[in-house]
Amino acid sequence: MFFVYILYSNKRDRYYIGYTSEIENRVAKHNVGSTTSTKSGIPWVLVYKEEFESKTDAIKREKEIKRMKSRKYIERLIKMN
Description:
Mean pLDDT: 96
CATH architecture: 3-Layer(aba) Sandwich
CATH superfamily: GIY-YIG endonuclease
Number of strands: 3
Shape: globular
Helix content: 40-55%
Number of helices: 3
Number of domains: 1
CATH topology: GIY-YIG endonuclease
CATH class: Alpha Beta
Distance between the termini: 19 Å
Low-confidence stretches: none
Radius of gyration: 12 Å
């Protein structure tokens, strides 16, 4: 099982989009500063996730969300969740 996830940092007022097969561990890594791109936004809160059978599908969906480059789109996804 794979997940596409969206994290939110109140500190930076930013969203972060990623994919993983171990969502709890991945969020924890973001929150201990293991990921350079999210280190300055700690603490991060998981605000959205989608589940996929394959890694390929998860990557495709992650890229689709990122390609939108729209905060409104991301916030709509979160509200529909």
